[in-house]
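WARN no homologs supplied; continuing
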Amino acid sequence: MRIFRRRGFVITLAVLVLAGLALYLGNSSTLAGPEAGRRPFLLAHRGLAQTFDLQGVAADTCTATRIHPPQVSFLENTVPSLQAAFAAGADAAEIDVQLTRDGRLAVFHDATLDCRTDGVGTVAEHTLDELRALDLGYGYTADGGASHPLRGKGVGLLPTVPEVFAALPGRELKLDLKHDTPAEGAAVAAFLQTLPPDRLAAVTVTGGDQAVAAVADRLPQVRTSSKAIIKRCLLRYFGEGWTGHVPSDCRHRELIVPIEYGKWLWGWPNRFVARMREADTRVVLVRYVGDWSAGFDTPADLATLPKGWTGAIWTNRVDVIAPLLTR
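OK structure emitted
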């Protein structure tokens, strides 16, 4: 009987070792290696514009009053800013979308106007013509208000979503919906439905769960992402990804992954990115400063990327990053 017990133990141990080896071989990023000839996909956050210090930022902080001394002359979410980002090497650009009082799709980030502009109130309280009259560069300062280097340079620059698409034919765009309402999602979907299929293939829509769902219900062919989508995908992948299978909840999506959390995903980084790419899902890597997502904007930031990273990275300074990746 002792011999049989010993033999059973050896067989069990062998099975466990083989299972562990198979698990390792099937999910080893080192063995998979990076995809040859690929560099990171560059997502330009709000185009090419001003950056600011995230240390100490709270939900109600006016970031325009804490910018770094300007190194570029552009204002975020404007057509010149987006054109400059693509000229510098961006693969896609993210814009922020809000509905105006007269139902237009304005491209603007903040909840209120009084931080960056010379206006007050919200986008939803103004017509597009009223918003166009504002100076988008009014509030920017790098020295506590002693000077305002961009004041007077943003009058009339606030664009609509259709104007951005018209100004950037053939370019890939990500629309971030700032208000989580079905009405905002429906308005975005109504515009997107006017685009040809090849243009829709280069569109991603992100935002709150309700707004994004309103787009996805009408346009399932558009890549989408929200907190609920990402949560469903990653929870299912955590349970199933060890097999190499990509769950349906992870297909045709955009996944925002903080660099600190990637190591918990099966096949991270190279095999994971390759699996998601095969499922038509883009993995966008972000880093965090405090509670806020930050871009990969400096050589030091790039040094923190996983070796051979070929997924997407989120950047505010594509003009700095693109040349480094090219070299």
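The beta strands are 41-45, 92-99, 105-107, 172-177, 203-207, 223-225, 254-258, 282-289, 292-294, 312-315.
OK
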